[in-house]
Design goal:
There is one protein chain. This protein is globular. A two-stranded antiparallel sheet has the order 1-2. It has about 525 residues and is mostly helical. The chain has 17 helices and 2 strands. The protein has one domain (about 25-525): Amino acid/polyamine transporter I. A hairpin with a 2-residue loop joins strand 1 (about 25) and strand 2. Belongs to the BCCT transporter (TC 2.A.15) family. It is a multi-pass membrane protein. Pfam families: BCCT. InterPro entries: BCCT_CS, BCCT_transptr.
Length: about 525
């Protein structure tokens, strides 16, 4: 045998005799890793009880934690985001890109279209629905700071608004997802380790992954995921309520938003009981079809020529602003920089265990290069198309003095519907938009619940139904509690939860990059 083909010593082969769920215990019909499940559940239930009993104190604590995280560690979020982008781009170009997830004989389990639909629906569909109109208008009109302090409502502001919006929804978030997803897929499918966050650290800490250090990593991942998901679900509930108010006069109150969360969480519970193929896959394909129809409608009826103009200008603006906005040294636009960019980076990081593990589960059989191109570049292109259609049309309406948006951004949750009102068939398209928000809401909730379930089950993929129901219910409860505790400033409370839990996980992701490279290098032998 060629010496180069021999297996390397086990110390650098990164395989283990540990099996997924081998330390699990059975509790109330559930199959769980006791330290991870119990600690995570107690922390979350304790937070829910505290926020319900003392909403003012909970709100003050969350906002204080958010302020401390941003003021003290804004540099860490920014450095981390930049490193993740460069790392993922490097993996596309380096020889390790030819490594196939699952081994050289592995083949994809899902068609490319279904695979991409699930990536996008889980990754940021609900956020794009909420912010694709509101965010460009906010930056253009100085609703809460402008990028690099450009003068509001100028041609420069329009360019900066689209460039900054793409900065927040382009390469950086998907690089964050890609790091976690690749780590989990590689160490699970190629090295046979359990599909859980701690497995990604095997090259760094070895068998200690299965002890207390590993428990802490997984607990942080569960809590970060819960709050990241709750933030997105809270935003989805406020937008759906805003749409119902805009169309049918239903009062947009916290009670209405919590009612929406209850209904959607109930549907998500039914979906999560059906599993990946029977629930998430079907809903994701429906999502992408409806989203494609809506974006085509806005592009065509909003002015097809204008859409292509926005497509070009948004791409140019993204390239122009990506480096200045990636810098954190000497910035004097603190209101924008801390209120938007740092929050987004923390939000994406807190979402990364959920989106990363979900992407990993559906990506077996892809090469690292194919995986990174799909996860990093393709969604960025789709986001450019989406933002060009919705954000470009919204800024045109503001500049042209057309409709409610001309006066600036009022109710953020109604911005999408205010833009659609000035296009043909506004009632129909607004109903489609509400349906899209709700279905994205459901797919985020049930896919996130499946992921949390896997982490707390010691990496087991197939788990008892009561377990799935428990975590789907917890996600809905946290979202409802954050809205309830936030009152009139619910959006701020949602953001505070995401930022606070995203901070410790940023450090985990940076270490994960080192572990991934060590593992991929070993696979080349």
């Amino acid at each position: 045998m060629d010496p180069k083909m021999k297996r390397r010593p086990k110390s650098t082969d990164y395989t283990s005799d540990y099996k997924a769920g081998q330390d699990n215990v059975q509790i109330l019909g559930m199959d769980v890793n006791n330290p991870v499940f119990t600690t995570s559940a107690l922390v979350i239930i304790g937070f829910i009880a505290f926020a319900l009993l003392f909403p003012a104190a909970a709100k003050e604590w969350l906002n204080g934690a958010k302020g401390w995280s941003i003021n003290s560690f804004d540099w860490l979020f920014m450095i981390g985001g930049n490193i993740f982008v460069l790392f993922c781009l490097a993996l596309i170009l380096l020889p390790v890109g030819k490594v196939r997830l699952g081994g050289s004989e592995a083949r994809p389990e899902f068609t490319t279209l279904s695979w991409f639909s699930m990536l996008f629906a889980a990754g940021m569909g609900i956020g794009l629905m909420f912010w694709s109109v509101a965010e460009p208008v906010a930056y253009f009109t100085d609703w809460w700071g402008t990028p690099l302090n450009v003068e509001a409502r100028t041609d420069e502001a329009a360019s900066a608004a689209m460039g900054a919006t793409m900065f927040h929804w382009g390469l950086h978030p998907w690089a964050i997802y890609g790091v976690v997803a690749l780590a989990l897929a590689f160490f699970s499918f190629n090295k046979g380790l359990p599909l859980t966050i701690r497995s990604a650290f095997y090259p760094l800490i070895g068998e200690r992954c299965w002890g207390p250090i590993g428990h802490v990593i997984d607990i942080i991942a569960v809590i970060a995921t819960i709050f990241g998901l709750a933030t997105s679900l809270g935003l989805g509930a406020t937008q759906a309520a805003g749409g119902l108010n805009f169309l049918f006069g239903v009062e947009n109150t916290i009670s209405t938003q919590i009612g929406i969360i209850i209904v959607v969480t109930s549907i998500a519970v039914l979906s999560v009981m059906r599993g990946l193929d029977g629930g998430v896959k079907v809903l994701s394909n429906i999502n992408m079809t409806l989203a494609a129809v809506l974006v085509l409608f806005v592009a065509i009826f909003g002015s097809l020529i204008g859409f292509f103009g926005h497509l070009f200008s948004t791409t140019v603006s993204y390239v122009e602003y990506i480096i200045p906005l990636s810098n954190w040294i000497g910035r004097d636009d603190n209101k924008f920089y801390e209120g938007w960019t740092v929050f987004y980076w923390a939000w994406w990081v807190s979402w990364s265990p959920f989106v990363g593990m979900f992407i990993a589960r559906v990506s077996k059989g892809r090469t690292v290069r194919e995986f990174m191109i799909a996860v990093l570049l393709v969604p960025t292109l789709v986001s450019i198309i989406w933002m060009s259609a919705f954000g470009g049309q919204a800024i045109d309406q503001v500049q042209g003095g057309v409709g409610a948006l001309a006066g600036g951004l009022g109710d953020v949750s109604s911005a999408m519907f205010q833009m659609l009102e000035n296009l043909p068939l506004s009632t129909l398209t607004s109903i489609v938009a509400i349906i899209l928000v709700l279905v994205f809401f459901i797919t985020s909730s049930d896919s996130g619940s499946l992921v949390i379930d896997s982490i707390t089950a010691g990496g087991k993929v197939e788990t008892p139904v009561p377990q799935r129901i428990f975590w789907a219910s917890m996600v809905g409860l946290i979202a409802g509690v954050l809205l309830f505790g936030g009152g009139s400033e619910a959006l701020s409370s949602l953001q505070a939860g995401a930022v606070t839990t995203g901070l410790p996980f940023t450090v985990i992701l940076l270490l994960m990059c080192v572990s991934i490279y060590k593992g991929l290098r070993s696979e080349l032998y």
